[in-house]
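Fold this sequence, please.
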Amino acid sequence: MPGKAGKSPPLRWFDCVRVHNLCMDAPTRLKKLTVHPPGAPTSDHPRPERLIQGNPLRETWNLVDENLAAGQVYCGVWRCEPGHWRIAMGPTERELFTVLTGRCRVHDALGGFEEAGPGEGIYIPPGFEGAFEVLETLTKTYMICE
């Protein structure tokens, strides 16, 4: 709406946000990750040849699955019962996760490990080989890039 002398009034920051949010495509919308995500998860168990202890039910709410210029990104919420299994990241695959509830350990091939509980995160680099151990039923947010 023009102001004095036919000039438009200056835009306020909230005008820009309102217009921007109305015009955004779905992939550019913000995503909130919570302990109790909406919808039904995808459920599975570790492959038998990878099991070390237990056969935990794993539930995944993958909320982002987008192509990148040089790969793919996945992001969501993951819940798992106690158990222990071998993991291997691909040569370009990496994960950053933050524990919301529960406790876990990520073991490296040399016998070391990092343990994480609520509010703590672990970065797993490309090519990593080791094991994932859920000590207490775990809920985490994750981002995996390939």
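The helical segments are 13-23. The beta strands are 42-44, 51-53, 58-68, 71-80, 83-88, 94-108, 113-116, 121-124, 129-145.
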